[in-house]
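We were asked to recover a plausible sequence for a given structure. The inputs and outputs are reproduced exactly as logged, with field labels preserved.

PROBLEM: sequence recovery
POSITIONS: 389
GIVEN STRUCTURE:
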């Protein structure tokens, strides 16, 4: 077992799970002595009414909250600076990330920005943050990014418009609330996007060179839950609280697997795609995942054969490699059935964009290559992007 020769860490934040658990946020903060939180969310969520019960429980607990509703997709660095400025000016003592991955990521980075002297650009990379941030509560309203169980944040660097990661132990949430009620009205498109994100986290963690017994455990359950629930939630999610609950847990479990094992090529390759085509994260992953899996099959055939079984494929009588190929078929079918585009050229990414994508990959995404179950060259990347066109 390769993992016996190296060390890895795991952290699962304190998490309250269950239907209606978001109503407990007021007492949770009051018990810990935090009475002046900033709620970080986006304009759509602020208008949706999802915040009403949260704000009501704050009133009942004597908590003075302020809402920052200017979160934008992919965490623009200038928005993080604005959020930190509001934290300072209103003298908040806690931060609540309420929404999808971007509001939660913005909340995490802003929480450490106000307690450190550096600019947000100086945090980009791994372990660049020197001091802990403000008390953080993360409450997802989507089921996919897993940011609530992650020490990472994705930001868009205003200097070059590229998405870049920040990793730090100071960005773990202090409390997480997983309430499926908050995801009931998630539209089909967002349901598909976030569900495919969770599935990709789990598949990449499972097949990765750095996979472990723990990451395998989390990943297998996440793959099973997404495969069983995403179609139902996509079709009529507001009537299926059980499917929403399973997807919400799958997202967190997939991120736990991802944290133990790390990312792979799909997440690496998606960054230049989203920067160029301005598609959602989940859409980019759906366009790339089958092609990367196909490339990787020979590097982890047993794992991909197991993925096929977890996704409901009949592999009786198949060889290991035949079963492994069925995992690619299963992912393709799922992506099609939840309305994902099939080709990169449908979203505006062309052959002419590949050289710039490769430059980005070899400058910023080497860790994804190192963790991939198969060694990859520039020519291999060209072949995968081209196949996806």
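RECOVERED SEQUENCE:
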């Amino acid at each position: 077992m390769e993992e016996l020769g190296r060390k890895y860490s795991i952290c699962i934040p304190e998490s309250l799970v269950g239907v209606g658990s978001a109503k407990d946020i007021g007492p949770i903060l009051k018990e810990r002595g935090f009475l002046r939180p900033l709620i970080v969310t986006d304009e759509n969520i602020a208008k949706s009414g999802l915040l009403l019960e949260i704000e009501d429980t704050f009133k009942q607990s004597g908590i003075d909250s302020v809402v920052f509703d200017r979160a934008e997709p992919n965490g623009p660095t200038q928005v993080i600076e604005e959020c930190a400025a509001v934290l300072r000016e209103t003298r908040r003592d806690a931060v609540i990330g309420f929404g999808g991955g971007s509001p939660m990521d913005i909340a995490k980075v802003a929480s450490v920005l106000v307690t450190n002297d550096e600019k947000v650009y100086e945090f980009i990379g791994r372990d660049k943050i020197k001091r802990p941030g403000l008390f953080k509560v993360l409450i997802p309203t989507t089921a996919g990014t897993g940011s609530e169980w992650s020490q990472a944040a994705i930001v868009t660097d205003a200097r070059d418009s590229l998405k870049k990661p920040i990793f730090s132990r100071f960005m773990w949430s202090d409390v997480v609330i997983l309430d499926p009620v908050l995801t009931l009205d998630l539209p089909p498109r967002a349901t598909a996007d976030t569900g495919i994100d969770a599935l990709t986290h789990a598949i990449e963690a499972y097949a990765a060179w750095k996979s472990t017994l723990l990451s395998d455990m989390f990943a297998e359950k996440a793959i099973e839950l997404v495969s069983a629930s995403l179609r139902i939630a996509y079709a009529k999610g507001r009537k299926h609280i059980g499917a929403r609950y399973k997807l919400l847990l799958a997202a967190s479990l997939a991120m736990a697997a991802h944290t133990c094992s790390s990312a792979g090529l799909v997440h690496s390759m998606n960054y230049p795609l989203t920067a160029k085509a301005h598609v959602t994260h989940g859409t980019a992953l759906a366009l790339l995942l089958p092609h990367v899996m196909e490339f990787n099959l020979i590097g982890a055939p047993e794992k991909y054969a197991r993925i096929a079984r977890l996704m409901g494929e009949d592999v009786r009588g198949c060889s290991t490699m035949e079963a492994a190929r069925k995992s690619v078929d299963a992912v393709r079918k799922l992506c099609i059935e939840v309305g994902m585009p099939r080709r990169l050229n449908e979203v505006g990414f062309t052959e002419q964009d590949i050289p710039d994508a490769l430059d980005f990959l070899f400058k910023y995404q080497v860790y994804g290559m190192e963790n991939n179950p198969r060694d990859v060259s520039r020519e291999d990347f060209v072949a995968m992007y081209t196949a996806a066109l």
